[in-house]
Amino acid sequence: MEATYQTKAIILSRQPFRENDCRVIVYSRDRGKIDLVARGTKKISSKLAGHLEPFNLSDLMVARGRQYDYIGAAISQNCYYNIKSDSEKTACAGQAANIFNKLIKPGERGERLFGLLLDFLETLNKNQLSVINYQLFYHFFALSMLVELGYRPELYKCVICGNKILPNGNQFDFLKGGLVCAICRKNNKNKQVLPISADCIKVLRLAVESDLNKLIKLKISDKLIKEINNIIGSFYNYNFI
Question: What is the pTM of this model?
């Protein structure tokens, strides 16, 4: 086994460890989620610390150890300054990093997952949004991540009868993982459901098919934003909380 390796990674979190070290959780393009130790990064004189801040995209040189792998060198490719200088963007990025860290297992890798997280950070860094739209953008990211992990909701056919979904009278069934049509809704005994508007269905369909850069440009009313956030948030909570 190689004694050292190079990898490009996004820093998910950094926590104090031992007297002068930190534990750094990263998501690597080619190695997935990795738990690493960065020696001496709690010292003011540390040259590594600035390159290992949460949300950084960094090139890492990692040395293998018996219990932990250690970061020997790091160079930031992008610090996403516009995120870190804006409290609302920082909070949004923190939510995304937390959910990503929670759902991805150590060693789990995927080029599309890395690309999704990278697109999220780059799009958030470039665009200025209102507070309510930051929550919507986070929920779009969460839905895209759930789709990549195999939790794609059924948004075109009724999960009970299989017929095509028509515009009105539908509900989202969290147990069955998708839409229930107006006819089947009358006899659906499951209580883990929410009514869903035709406009919300349209946006959710677009969200699972489009990249985040397109979704951030959508013009959506505050009422619809609240509905979308509720549906996606409830879908996530049902599956993972």
Answer: 0.93
Return the number of other C-beta atoms located less than 10 Å from residue 80's C-beta: 22
| Cα 153 to Cα 145: distance, rounded to the nearest angstrom | 12
> Both tokens of residue 35?
């738990």
Tens-digit pLDDT profile for residues 56-97: 999 999 999 888 899 999 999 999 999 999 999 999 999 999
The two beta strands, 21-28 and 57-63, are unpaired
Co-location of 148 and 213 in the same domain: yes
How many separate domains does the chain show? 2
Q: Is residue 99 part of a domain?
A: no
Instruction: Compute the distance between CA of residue 30 and CA of residue 108 in angstroms, rounded to an integer.
Output: 10
Helix/strand/coil (H/E/C) assignment for every residue in 153-220: CECCECCCCCCECCCCCEEEECCCCEEECHHHHCCCCCCCEEEECHHHHHHHHHHHHCCHHHHCCCCC
Within a domain: 30: yes
- Is residue 157 in some structural domain? no
- Do residues 231 and 133 both lie within one domain? yes
